[in-house]
Amino acid sequence: MAFVDIQKLNFSYPLAKQPVLNDIDLSIEAGEFVVICGTSGCGKSTLLKHLKREITPHGDTSGSILFEGILLNELSERIAAAEIGFVMQNPENQIVTDKVWHELAFGLENLGFDTMTIRRKVAEMANYFGIQTWFRKSTMELSGGQKQILNLAAIMAMQPKLLILDEPTSQLDPIAAREFISTIHKLNVDFGLTIILVEHRLEEVYPLADRVVVMDNGRIICNGTPKKVAQELQNVSNVHPMLLGLPTPIRVHHALNSQTEAPLTIREGRQWLSQNFVESPAVNQPKPVTIDKKPVLDVNDTWFRYEKDGNDILRGFSLKAYPGEVISILGGNGAGKTTALGVMSGLHRPYRGKIKIFDKPIKKYSNDELYHKCMAVLPQNPQTIFVTKTVKLELEIVAQTLKLSNEEAADEINSIVRLLNLEYLLERHPYDLSGGEQQKLAFAKILLLHPCILLLDEPTKGLDAASKEVLANILKRLKAKGIAIVMVTHDIEFSASHSDRCALFFDGSIISMDATKTFYSGNHYYTTAAHRMSRHLFSNVITCEDVIKRCNIQLKETIQL
Predict the structure, then answer these.
(1) Residues 295-337: pLDDT tens digits?
(2) DSSP letter string over 379-410?
(3) Which domains does the chain have, with CATH numbers?
(4) What share of the chain is helix, strand, coil (3-state, %, to 5)?
(5) pLDDT of 479-497, one tens digit each?
(6) Burial per residue of 363-385, b for 16 or more beta-carbon CB atoms within 10 angstroms, e otherwise
(7) φ, ψ at 322 (rounded to 5°)
(8) pTM for the complete prediction?
């Protein structure tokens, strides 16, 4: 008997024309580590929510889900709450108390454990997850990585048998994400905990899985070991969108049409490269960035704190953004990157320093001047800009602010809907969309404003690899129009492929900025998977495409010899 058994599960949201889940059959054994992946909107998150009955979405459902042989709806409230744990995508949405220690104890209190048992279990979890040093802190003081670890620890205190995670690393910096995934793997290995994980960032988690399940349009199209699924995806179609999301070693291996077994990890990828290729110098050395234009955004020596007597969040933060370039700002959770965007956008006013937009002080702009056809901001949480009941209405409200005729507004909306592939979502409620779909809707709203300066806070969060390519193409078009784009991101791979300059944010300011290739080639830890995999052979190689190109050069030279 399977530990979790999903049989013929179908689901449609209210008023939706197409079902989100189509005849899902999936069995999961006790102790398995299962990774579910697929393009944005394929039904991954909806499937996970059906496994936790307290958050099952409203709509038309058929089929059955059994947990240890019992129908999910027939489980007692205690078993359903304690034995099936769920970690959400946004750590902010799951924390319910003001103190770390209370958050750890909250679930146990609700289950009715006595005080001594609660104290023992809380102490045990705090030690296991390394929470002792911030045990008495306010939950508001924690970084994104700490909040997600706290969510996990609070669930594990109830000793669940099944742990479900919905893109838990989407808001974590690369180092914190690796640590979180390592912790998940440790729970699986140390305790035999059954884990079901939905994730778009597959570099770290894909090789750890016992089984990978790929979904497409509400159906399961692949189900097997990581190596088997990688091969099946290539056989299904050479242009299947999920191929773009596979770990770098697999993508390089597939692109070079190697007949050997595909490497999964960076270590295996390095070994495979060493066996098949030789060390070679850079083909083209990166050139220093020289800019002879005037900046459209000039931030000079700004200092900012949220409270008069509080600590400085920004300390001498400076940045110049020029027309037609993309700047990526990277750094750890809680470093102050989002605050820096708030200062650049005029949302926060620094107590020292100057900000100029098109050589005019930002404080001399009215809100109407600044946010209509001048500057637009994509917030970290897209839900903060959703105000209506349907996707279509969200877009129409923005068009109304531009004072366009009905015909012009319709043309603008239709154009952006086609560009971002939102046609099938127009009648859906924004809150019913997946994380990636919400991100695309938010991006559509700000693009309708026709900004000259675009500030993006985690624009690739929740997006699958194919949707990221759509975003990349949009950024190229905007660059060609001379629009300056400043992007705060944890997505190293995306920034390496699509940025002109990259900056490392630390201790309240930018401590390093350079051309993208120079920036990532000079970093040892804060760098791409492609660079970590190939730097022992190739210099100035930072993307998967760079590795493939250098390998192909060697293969051609070998053939010519």
Answers:
(1) 999 999 999 999 888 889 999 999 999 999 999 999 988 788 9
(2) -SSGGGG--SSSHHHHHHHHHHHTT--HHHHH
(3) 30-52+77-231 (3.40.50.300), 246-276+533-561 (no CATH), 291-374+451-527 (3.40.50.300), 383-449 (no CATH)
(4) 45, 20, 35
(5) 998 999 999 999 999 999 9
(6) eebeeeebbbebbbbbbbbbeeb
(7) -110, 160
(8) 0.85
